[in-house]
């Protein structure tokens, strides 16, 4: 069994600005989680208890502790591809943003030995590499890539690929960049050449940059064609960046240039778009993801987080049995999925619903193709 989408980073790698959405200070996360967990003491399946588990998991001392907690939900020898997150350039409150951008490593950008030991991105890398070395048969991490980070292409070439510390890369456009950003296109050229898998966030949920104004480079669809953008964009509401940057069609210029790129459009458009899709709405992100998966040979999608909504199961099963059957991957989005309910209940409900053939297709056969195994 393979889970292609999980997270084990803890809150020490998250900027202070992220916690504002939960109306809590970093220092108060532990107390808040205890309060939420005890609000309805007779049950652990209410929404507040779910948020409490999310906060408690992220507050663990190490990523290895989070990995060990996740493993308990899975059969022995399950393979995980934990995805790093690089939040420091998109969300305010990074405690030393200058160091985190790599400004102190001009001669040897991303030689970990030369990085400040307190630089949080390097720290996260070190910890993930340590886990990889201890769990070589079951953990194949994906490196977080932000095109604004200094020396990122050098880092990818040094660290990502078969038999290296990282098996693939993870991008999160809503943190403030387009998939076709010029520096990101250089990364994708390397990934296409070396057959390195790429996972991207592709839903209207999740996090987004907390800036109102951003310099934007790349190509976007203007309703008729793809046009070049190189200007400062502004949004009245910061949450609108998710729709702008995560829009599935933003990937067409990338895929047209690198047609063999192994790409996972994670979350299959997201639960909001799934509800629109099931209501009969045309042109949803679910439709767009299906179109890209059918159009490009190495494009896949995972059902991480989305699988928490049981109303989607009949449609997902129908897709697994149809032309999309070879393009759907199982991903859990642990521990983010804790916010939608008891994780064990959600994952168990999904696997009870699927037949052995369907389960094997999305948890083993398709993931192996995506991971190039």
Reconstruct the topology from this structure.
Blueprint: E1 2-6, H1 29-39, H2 47-58, H3 63-71, E2 79-82, H4 97-100, H5 120-134, E3 142-144, H6 152-159, E4 168-171, H7 182-194, E5 198-203, E6 213-221, E7 226-234, H8 240-246, H9 252-257, E8 263-269, H10 271-278, H11 285-295, E9 299-302, H12 313-321, E10 328-329, H13 343-353, H14 356-370
Parallel strand pairs: 1-2, 3-4, 4-5, 5-8, 8-9, 9-10
Antiparallel strand pairs: 6-7
Helix pairs in contact: 1-2, 6-7
Entry keywords:
37% helix; 373 residues; alpha/beta; six-stranded parallel beta sheet; globular; 14 helices; two-stranded parallel ribbon; TIM Barrel
Short note summarizing the structure:
This protein is an alpha/beta fold. It has helices spanning 29-39, 47-58, 63-71, 97-100, 120-134, 152-159, 182-194, 240-246, 252-257, 271-278, 285-295, 313-321, 343-353, 356-370, and strands at 2-6, 79-82, 142-144, 168-171, 198-203, 213-221, 226-234, 263-269, 299-302, 328-329.
Count of separate structural domains: 1
Order of helices and strands: EHHHEHHEHEHEEEHHEHHEHEHH
User: In this structure, how is the largest beta sheet organized?
Assistant: 6 strands, parallel
Please mark out the parts with pLDDT under 50 across 5 or more consecutive residues, or reply none. 31-43, 103-112, 114-118
Q: Which CATH class is shown?
A: Alpha Beta
Characterize the structure shown.
With 373 residues, the protein is an alpha/beta fold. It has one domain: Metal-dependent hydrolases (TIM Barrel, Alpha-Beta Barrel). Helices cover 37% and strands 14% of the residues. The two termini are 13 Å apart.
